[in-house]
């Protein structure tokens, strides 16, 4: 598969140009080359890496933590993900509690 331009990567991953540039600045991803027009090109591995970085962000990892786990060993990744899942479950429980409280308040306003 041939390399894609930054614009194509953004369109394909749903990640903004600015976000990808931030990933580059943090050393998380880099272009694999440039085309004849000087546009940065990204290979399939870079595209998949961008998708993975974005996923880590979506589940709550800050970029500085992602840089420490994305290339880490499987045990390190597993531990980080297990801890993040625990935190997400706590957040989910708290949101459920808040929703229940908000619904009771709404009922009392009727």
Automatic annotation (TrEMBL):
Gene3D superfamilies: 1.10.1660.10. The keyword Repressor applies. Residues 78-108 form a coiled coil. It comes from the Bacteria. Residues 13-72 form the HTH merR-type domain. Pfam families: MerR_1. Keywords: Coiled coil, DNA-binding, Repressor, Transcription, Transcription regulation. This is MerR family transcriptional regulator. It comes from Enterocloster hominis (ex Liu et al. 2021). The lineage of its organism: Bacteria, Bacillati, Bacillota, Clostridia, Lachnospirales.
């Amino acid at each position: 598969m041939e390399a894609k331009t930054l614009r194509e990567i953004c369109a394909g991953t749903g990640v903004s140009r600015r976000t990808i540039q931030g990933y580059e600045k943090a050393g998380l991803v880099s272009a694999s080359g440039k085309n004849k027009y000087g546009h940065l090109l990204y290979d399939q591995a870079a595209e998949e890496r961008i998708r993975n970085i974005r996923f880590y962000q979506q589940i709550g990892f800050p970029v500085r933590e992602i840089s420490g786990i994305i290339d880490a060993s499987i045990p390190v990744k597993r531990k980080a993900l297990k801890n993040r899942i625990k935190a997400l479950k706590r957040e989910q429980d708290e949101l459920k509690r808040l929703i229940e409280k908000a619904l009771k308040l709404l009922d009392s306003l009727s």
